[in-house]
Structures are given as structure tokens and as C-alpha cells.
Write a structure and sequence with these properties.
The protein is α+β, with helices and mostly antiparallel strands and 212 residues long. It folds into two domains: 9-91 and 175-211, no CATH class; 98-172, no CATH class. The protein has four helices and eight strands. It has helices at 9-50, 83-93, 128-135, 181-211; strands at residues 58-63, 74-79, 97-99, 106-109, 139-143, 150-154, 163-169, 171-173. The strands form three sheets. The chain has a four-stranded antiparallel beta sheet, with no helix packed on it. A two-stranded antiparallel ribbon has the order 1-2. A two-stranded antiparallel ribbon has the order 3-8. Helix 1 (9-50) runs antiparallel to helix 4. The radius of gyration is 29 Å and the shape is rod-shaped. It starts with 8 loop residues before the first helix and ends with a helix.
Length: 212
């Protein structure tokens, strides 16, 4: 008299498939959670450094969507916006110098210049020369008191004294108010810890199932 125990290979395959799906889903979930957390981290850093509404430019995207299992889950945090948002973020998050091209000057409008209207065709702002053409005024330059910059002056109405409309400087140092890389590295480490916790829960669930 003898007894034998056996397992249907199909049961083994189903169990393996379920385990793989659980692990892949855990990976996607961890990537999604930490990607959204990184977006919030960068929003907070930007708000503290720049103020205003620039922090709203941060957006995130996770693939695949809906937390579906994947061998290659991917999370991306990016600046959602045109050249103005991209440039502003680069200014606050980078060290460097923005130099004028061809021995010219960077032009920064004063409150007297008013809003700088769009001229279309992908050009978001008027240059100082275009501004003068639009407003039908003549401009002239004077040096600032400290000699570090020039000021573009214009009389906005006939008979009125000239007022400063643009400040002209040869270069501008970037703000360098916050760093993106350390925030990314911090979340990368937290991603692995997040995944470890999820895998541990899968292991505990499997251990409980095996004792039932």
C-alpha cells in the first residue's frame, strides 16, 4: 500500500503567473507613487524659491497608466509650458550666466513700458526695438549711476519728459535658488524602499496562503 502527493503543473503555472503579476504591479505602483511625490517636492521647492505661480508648471506622467503591471514602468516629471516657463525654471534651478549675443544687451522692461504684447508667429514678447516701433516713440540710452547697466529712455507722449522703459545689461546671473538633482536622488532611494515594502506584503500574503 502506498500514497503519493502531486501538484498539477497547471496549478504551478497559475501560481507563478499570479506572483509575477503581483510583483510587476508592485513595481508600477511604487513608480507611480514616488513620481507623484517628486512632482509635489519640486512644486514646493519652486514655490519657496520663486513664489508666484511658476510652481504650477510641474507635471508628471506615469506609464503604463492605471497601475497596470509592467516590466518597464516609467515615471517622468517635467515642466509643462513654453519657452517662458522652461527658461524661468532653468533660471531658478541652475547656476550660470545668461549673456547677451553679438555684444548687445539683455533688455528688461520697467513698469513704464507696460505689458509687452505678443506679435504672434511663436514670438511671445516684443524686443526693445519692436516695442519702440509699436508705440511709435524714439528711444535713447543713458548709463546707470553705477555704470553697470544702460537705461533705455523714451517720452511716451508728446511734450512729456522721458522715462526709463528698459534696463539694458550685458549679462544676468542665474538665480540658482534650488537644486533639482538632490530631490530626484532622494525620491530614487525612496522608490526602492517603497518597492521593498510592497514586495514584503506580497511575501506575507503568500506565506499566509500556504498555511491555509
Amino acid at each position: 500500500m502506498s500514497s503519493a502527493l502531486s501538484i498539477d503543473p497547471r496549478d504551478i503555472q497559475r501560481a507563478a503567473d499570479q506572483l509575477i503579476t503581483s510583483v510587476l504591479t508592485a513595481g508600477t505602483g511604487a513608480v507611480g507613487q514616488e513620481t507623484r511625490a517628486l512632482e509635489k517636492d519640486l512644486e514646493k521647492l519652486t514655490q519657496q524659491a520663486a513664489g508666484g505661480k511658476l510652481w504650477r508648471a510641474w507635471k508628471s506622467e506615469v506609464r503604463p497608466k492605471g497601475g497596470k503591471p509592467s516590466y518597464t514602468p516609467k515615471g517622468t516629471v517635467f515642466v509643462n509650458g513654453g519657452s517662458r516657463s522652461q527658461g524661468a525654471m532653468l533660471y531658478f534651478a541652475s547656476a550660470g550666466i545668461n549673456r547677451a549675443k553679438q555684444s548687445m544687451f539683455l533688455a528688461f522692461p520697467t513698469e513704464h513700458a507696460g505689458p509687452r504684447p505678443s506679435i504672434g508667429a511663436g514670438v511671445s514678447n516684443l524686443t526693445a526695438r519692436q516695442w519702440a516701433q509699436v508705440h511709435h516713440v524714439e528711444t535713447f540710452e543713458i548709463e546707470s549711476r553705477d555704470g553697470r547697466a544702460k537705461v533705455l529712455m523714451a517720452s511716451l507722449r508728446p511734450g512729456e519728459p522721458a522715462v526709463p522703459v528698459f534696463v539694458l545689461i550685458p549679462f544676468q546671473r542665474f538665480g540658482n535658488k534650488f537644486a533639482i538633482a538632490p530631490a530626484v536622488e532622494r525620491r530614487r532611494k525612496m522608490l526602492f524602499a517603497n518597492l521593498d515594502r510592497r514586495l514584503a506584503r506580497i511575501g506575507k500574503a503568500g506565506a499566509r496562503a500556504s498555511t491555509d
